[in-house]
Design goal:
heterodimer, A: about 60 residues, 4 helices, B: about 160 residues, 5 helices, about 30% helix, globular
């Protein structure tokens, strides 16, 4: 998945135009909403638990 | 940045003390009758006995949440280690995925320790059913409470 697609999913789910430096907790999503984002991105829960920023999500999505 | 990790109770305790009353105020039932009075010595003993598992959520270095578990063989199933939720809490202003991370990391830590089954719960007024089911937990029981009055000076 490309960076633009990840950012698009995040914006669709949260309404937040995030950048790679954006911290995940700044997205304003609660735990359930956060899990929805990661489901949409097909990222496993254990990987999510280690992520801190949108950049971490982008890098994971690009690698897988 | 919010990071979730396994720590020791004794590491967490000094910073957790101010959070416990907030936790109690938000979530405890029968507050007019049952006041918070955490038995720190007992928690220390449980930790020494290898029964207590503690995870923390930290925003940078600051403690913003915790999850404690009791790990022990169940009296019905002596050969199996079970994980029972003691308590979990995240400061309201940090509820941006930290709760999910605490559950996910807890599960990993429980698996590492050989736990066969974990049991958790949530308050009816703070219903986490959708999150827990999303994380693969199964609703198996309802819990009921009844205030009986009882002695306030139990030892």
């Amino acid at each position: 998945m490309r960076k633009s697609e990840v950012l698009e999913v995040i914006e669709r789910e949260t309404g937040y135009a995030a950048e790679e430096s954006t911290e995940l907790d700044a997205l304003g999503a609660d735990s359930l909403e956060m899990m929805s984002i990661f489901t949409a991105l097909d990222i496993p829960d254990v990987a999510f638990a280690e992520m801190q920023t949108v950049g971490d999500v982008v890098r994971y999505a690009e690698r897988h | 940045l919010i990071a979730v990790q396994v720590e020791t109770w004794s590491q967490m305790l000094p910073e957790a003390r101010p959070l416990f009353p907030l936790h109690w105020k938000e979530l405890a039932v029968f507050q007019d009758h049952i006041k918070i009075d955490l038995d720190e010595a007992k928690y220390n003993a449980l930790e020494q006995a290898g029964i207590l598992l503690t995870l923390t959520a930290r925003k940078d270095a600051r403690l913003v949440g915790y999850f404690t578990w009791f790990l022990m063989p169940h009296p019905h199933y002596r050969q199996y280690l079970m994980g029972m939720t003691d308590m979990y809490y995240v400061l309201p202003e940090f509820r941006r995925g930290a709760g999910a991370k605490l559950f996910i990391k807890s599960e990993a830590a429980l698996r590492e320790r050989g736990v066969i089954k974990a049991i958790t719960s949530c308050k009816v007024e703070h219903d986490h059913t959708r999150l827990l089911e999303r994380l693969g937990w199964i609703l198996t029981d309802f819990t009921f409470c009844k205030l009986l009055g009882g002695n306030t000076e139990c030892q």
